[in-house]
Amino acid sequence: MVGAAAVGSVTVPRMSTDTTLDDPHRDGEGAGGHGHDHSHGLVDPSIKRSRAGLRAVGLALAILVATAVAQAIVFVASGSVALLADLVHNAGDAATAIPLGIAFALRSELAERRAGLFVVLAILVSACVAGYEAVLRLIEPQRPDHLAALALAGAVGFAGNMLAARVRSRAGRRLGSAALVADGDHARADAYVSLAVVASAAAIAAGAHVADPLIGLAITVVILRITAQSWRTVRGGKAHG
């Protein structure tokens, strides 16, 4: 601040020693500021959200890959074609991590919404495949082999998918990501498909062969319900707790 001191009849300007008050580059750190207009040591919220989303997607993907590897080991030991179908299904569904990971890396809301729509489509395809297989087995009944191995692999698939679903859903609600919540729903739908494998193996072992396709139809209805729930979540753009 500029003051004034009278010396005789002459007024002499007096400069304030406080240089922080009028410094246009001050960043709020007092006289020790570094002359920047931003806060030091802080990370942009969008960057933190992107990193958290990538961590969740990566962790869920690692869980699903480990699940697929475990199922592959059982398949090699048993040679069950039904188990191979479930293995391929679970491995393929893990691919939904790709568009979600790209969306979080780009920090793009548009890409995230599109990834969410892709996930909903993937859930719908899962329902259609499960329904088709169930109807086909009603028309042409067949008894799968290696029931113990089939049940074991189904249990592994159920556990892995449910764990991945929990990781995705919790992160999605925390980050407000409708797409990540929908992907959690997707993993949960896959868990129910794997659970149906276990139930079918048990029913067939007990002699109730018709229970296999009926369980498949029931699971199809459950997945369709999850599809509708995920569609509402993605369309609304909000992750509900």
Brief descriptors of the model:
241 residues, mainly alpha, Alpha-lytic protease prodomain-like, two-stranded antiparallel ribbon, elongated
Provide a descriptive summary of the structure in words.
71% of the residues lie in helices and 5% in strands. It is mostly helical. It has two domains: 31 residues, no CATH class; 192 residues, Alpha-lytic protease prodomain-like, CATH 1.20.1510. Strands 1-2 form a two-stranded antiparallel sheet. Helix 1 packs antiparallel against helix 3, helix 3 runs antiparallel to helix 4 and helix 6 packs antiparallel against helix 7. The longest helix has 34 residues. It is elongated and about 65 Å long.
The major sheet is characterized as: 2 strands, antiparallel
| Adjacency order of strands in the biggest sheet | 1-2
For this structure, the quaternary state is: single chain
What's the CATH class label of the largest domain?
Answer: Mainly Alpha
Spans where pLDDT lies below 50 across 5 or more residues: 5-41
